[in-house]
Amino acid sequence: MKMTPAAASPAQALTVFVEGIGLLGPGFSTWAQGRRQLDGSSPYQPERCTLPLPMSLPPAERRRAGAVVRVSLAVGQEAVTASGLQAAALPSVFSSSSGDAINCHEICRALASGDRLISPTRFHNSVHNAAAGYWSISSGAMASSSVLCARDASFAAGLLEAMAQAVVEQTAVLLVAYDTDYPEPMHSVRPLPDSFGVALVLTPSRSERSLAQWSLEPASCLSGAASHRLDDGALEALRQGIPAARCLPLLRSVALQISGTVVLDYLAGLQLAVQVAPCR
Q: Which 8-state DSSP code applies to residue 263?
C-alpha cells in the first residue's frame, strides 16, 4: 500500500476547507440543483444523467472524449469556477472505481471479434489517468496529478489523498471522483446504474468563499462503524449504487450547513469519520 503524506505525520489532524463543489449525476446537472435536493427544498427525481460536451477541449480532443472525460471535466470546471482559483495552478487527485467502463467494453468487444483490431483512440483512452490527462489539456494545468482506484472505496481514498496533500503541501487541491456504467454483459457483474461525478476544491486555509470545514483525526479510520445513510430512499439507492456517490452524506452536511461527524464507507471493514462544520 502506498504511504500517503498523512501517514508520515500521525499526530497531525487533517483539516481542510471546501471552496468549491461540482456535481453531476442522475437527476441533477449542477451542485446548485443537487444542493436543493439534498437539503430537502426540492424533491429528488431520478433521471438518466446527461453528459455535456467538453467545450473546453480543442475540437480533435473533444471528438475523442468519452463519458469519463465528459463527467470529470464538467464537475471539475464547476468546482474550480466556484472557488475563484486558477485551474492551471491546482494540483489534482482523480479517483474512479472502474475508469472508462464504456471504453473497456468496446475494447473487449473488439478483442472478441474476428479481426481483433483496436482503435487507437480506444487504446489511448483505456489508461486509468485518461480523465486527468484531458483535464490538463482543457485547463492548461501543469501541477502534479494523482490518479487512484480503490473499487467501492475510491471516493474515500481520493478524499484522504486530497486532504493529505492540501495539509502537508499547504496548497489548494482539486479532487475529482467519477464513475460510469458498464454496458452488458459486464453490467451484470458490475451493475453501476448510471454516470456520476463530484469535484471538490479543498484548501488548507479558510477564505470568504469557504463553504465548510472538514477534519480527519489520526484515529478517524474506524472498524465496523455504520456509514451514514440518506433519509430519501432514492438518494440512498444512488449512494449505494455508485461508488463516487458515497460523497452524498458529506455534500448533504454542506447543503444543510450542519456540524457533526459524517462516517463514510472506506476499505473493507473500515470507515472514515469526517468532522464537519459550516463556514457560513
A: E
**By the 8 A CB rule, do 136 and 145 touch?**
yes
Q: Are 20 and 201 in contact (CB under 8 A)?
A: yes
Say what the pLDDT of residue 99 is: 75
User: Alpha-carbon distance 53 to 71, whole Å?
Assistant: 9
Q: pLDDT tens digits, residue range 42-97?
A: 999 889 988 887 767 666 677 676 788 889 999 999 999 999 999 999 999 999 98
Q: What share of the chain is helix, strand, coil (3-state, %, to 5)?
A: 40, 20, 40
pLDDT of residue 5: 39
pTM for the model: 0.88
Residue 215: name the closest of 1, 8, 2, 17 by CA.
17
Three-state SS for 249? helix
Q: Is residue 6 pLDDT above 60, yes or no?
A: no
pLDDT at 267: 87
Say if residue 58 is preceded by a cis peptide, omega within 30 of 0.
no
Residue-wise pLDDT for 229-239, tens only, equals 999 999 999 99
| DSSP type of residue 151 | G
* Whether the Cβ atoms of residue 266 and residue 157 lie closer than 8 Å to each other: yes
- Domains, the chain, with CATH or none: 5-210 (3.40.47.10)
Q: In the structure, how many helices (H) and strands (E) does the chain have?
A: 10, 9
Buried b (16+ CB within 10 A) or exposed e, 244-269: bbbbbbbbbbbbeeeeeebbbbbeee
pLDDT of 35 = 97
Helical ranges in 90-129 per DSSP H: 101-111, 120-124
